[in-house]
Design a protein that fits this description.
The protein is α+β, with helices and mostly antiparallel strands. The protein is built from 10 helices and 17 strands. Strands 14-13-12-16-17 form a 5-stranded mixed beta sheet, covered by helices on one side. Strands 5-2-8-9 form a 4-stranded mixed beta sheet, with helices on one face. Strands 4-3-6-7 form a 4-stranded antiparallel beta sheet. The chain is globular, with a radius of gyration of 23 Å.
Length: 380
């Protein structure tokens, strides 16, 4: 959990009475903000498109608008004017960020004393979000304490404590999932039902657990654009579950030569989703290198699929050489729009799938000692 880079998107998923896009407006006010605000930035994802823009406040007021087909979360943050020496003022979390659920219509947002201290009027979805936030608060506080301890252990290079905390994070993740499940059990028609389900499902959807909960939601929630999109995610999760046959794909390698997964049939293949810009991926690479060097001669190989960005082929190749990744690497250099990543429902990296010689997925998201142990069992 600590070693994942998440895709930058927000679950825009709530009950709406109409599926066609409608106008929304956010009117904001700034009161007693100590630092002089230069611009207010906002970001949200609607109909598969990420919208980002900014507005300059006038006399402590700002406003922005757009079109949405359902209530969704908007992330708002502020940048201040440079200080007296001309240096930019660094943004601080959570002081300078706020998350607001908006809906078609007009929403009033007021920030008092700090930008993040917001009060919202005109949005029932935001009221529901505040209610859910109260339920998740105890677990979030434990998460924050564990994160602080993990950072200290990382600085001290205390691997034993870090390993213990990894187990703590896993336990807290399960505890948080139960909170979301409990909320959905009594609020299946909530305007934030799909948001709660997305949080519960996480980046690695278990269809056996998630699909029954999805089907228990009220039909209006499932009929929203995000509800329909989530149904597709469940179907993709079924296709990439352990025991399923790995979907074939073809993508170009570093020399622009097409390479297919099918060409590796007869070997154990680790399909490894990563990127040069992904810190946790680069930290995991030595473990994959060790596994490859140990078992390659026995019938194991790796097929790397990179989510590097357009125009960054040089960074991709440099990372391959720097990390000594001597196996086949492919990419279309489309970042999170990588076609193979979308085909496999990748929402966070690093992720991997271990495929047997017949093409069946026999394990997924195994790293470090778990990867070595699995391969040791296979190649006794």
């Amino acid at each position: 959990m600590k070693k994942l880079v998440l895709a930058l998107f927000v679950f825009a998923s709530f009950v709406a009475t109409a599926q066609e896009a409608q106008n929304f407006t956010v009117n904001g006010t700034l009161q007693n903000i100590a630092l002089p605000v230069n611009k207010v930035y906002y970001s949200y994802r609607a109909d598969g498109v990420t919208v980002r823009d900014s507005v300059a406040p006038t006399d402590g007021k700002y406003s922005f608008s757009g079109k949405i087909a359902e209530p969704l979360m908007v992330t708002i943050f502020v940048r201040y004017k440079n200080d007296a020496t001309g240096k930019p003022i660094k943004m601080v979390q959570p002081r300078d960020y706020a998350s607001v659920f908006v809906a078609p219509g007009t929403v009033q947002v007021s920030s008092t004393d700090s930008f993040s201290n917001v009060k919202v009027k005109g949005s029932k979805a935001h009221e529901a979000y505040l209610s859910l936030t109260e339920k998740t608060k105890p677990v979030n506080e434990k998460m924050q304490a564990a994160s602080k301890a993990y950072s200290a252990a990382y600085q001290a290079k205390d691997s034993a404590t870090m390993k213990t905390l990894d187990a703590t994070f896993d336990a807290l993740d399960l505890e948080m999932k139960e909170v979301y499940k409990g909320y959905l059990a009594t609020n299946n028609n909530s305007p934030i039902a799909m948001y709660a389900l997305g949080q519960m499902a996480g980046w690695d959807i278990n269809p056996e657990v998630v699909e029954p909960i999805y089907k228990s939601l009220a039909e209006p929630a499932r009929a929203t654009p995000s509800g329909k999109a989530f149904a597709e995610k469940i179907e993709t999760a079924k296709k990439t579950a352990v025991g399923a046959m790995a979907m074939d794909f073809t993508q170009n390698d570093t020399l622009d030569v097409p390479v297919s997964l099918a060409s590796f049939k007869g070997k154990y293949v680790l399909i490894d989703f990563w990127a040069s810009w992904c810190g946790p991926c680069r930290q995991e690479n030595p473990n994959v290198v060790k596994a490859f060097q140990t078992y390659n001669a026995k019938g194991f190989t790796v097929l790397g699929v990179s989510l590097d960005q357009p125009g960054a082929k040089d960074k991709w190749i440099k990372a391959i050489h720097d990390d000594n990744l001597t196996w086949t690497q492919v990419s279309d250099l489309k970042y999170w729009d990588n076609q193979v990543a979308k085909q496999y429902g990748i929402q966070a990296i690093p992720q991997n799938f271990l495929v047997d010689p017949a093409g069946k997925i026999i394990a997924k998201n195994i790293r470090g000692e778990e990867l070595s142990s699995k391969l040791a069992t296979i190649f006794k």
